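Batch manifest line 223
LIGAND: 5-O-phosphono-beta-D-ribofuranosylamine
JOB: complex structure
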Amino acid sequence: MPRRLAVLLSGRGSNLEALVESVHECPAVDARIVGVCSNRPRAPGLEIARAAGIASTCVDHRAYADRSAFEADLGAALDRFEPDLLVLAGFMRVLTPAFVRRYSPRMLNIHPSLLPDLPGLHTHARALERGDPEAGASVHVVTPEVDGGPVVARVRVPVAADDTPERLEARVRAAEHRLYPAVLAWEAAGRLQLGTEAVRLDEALLPATGIDFRLRDEVLEPC
Ligand code: GRF
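JOB STATUS: finished
ARTIFACT:
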């Protein structure tokens, strides 16, 4: 049976687009995106889902007086997709520990930095302010600590001398579009054992920072 993935997003959905192309519509990957859920009704990602013929729904956080009521409906909407794995792709709400525990470790996120460095927002601007020679993105298991769960894999991206946060973000995003499908292909092939403390790939315990890649000619290669 193909792995059933549910994607959560809030905005643009370029990672969803990459996952549609390289996971959902890729015959070599035994996984299907069974549903997409946004907390914003106008998220362009919802349109990407519709265009791909994927079920989509919105649970608008602004309609709820408190976080637990929002999360109760969010959980109900997600459970209707009967997912094996939740895939956060630009979902911009912090989830409560209670919600996270309900799904963890069956929940992955992609974050635009080389975790554990630079958790939180504005990672590209912060990397540039510090004068970092490289930036990147990480796919990690979601745990109650924001951006703190075990890392499955990272992709390293060089910083250019004339980078702006926007230019760096675009370069990192292009790398994200390779990294997330690669990790989900491992998952679909049954090669990953996700845990809240650690992750195994092909039975081998991964280091806390996961497996490092870089892009060469738009293809991931291990560092
Ligand atoms: C990405 O940069 C991802 O790392 C972060 O949110 C952004 C989502 O972009 N979690 P998109 O909506 O997939 O284009």
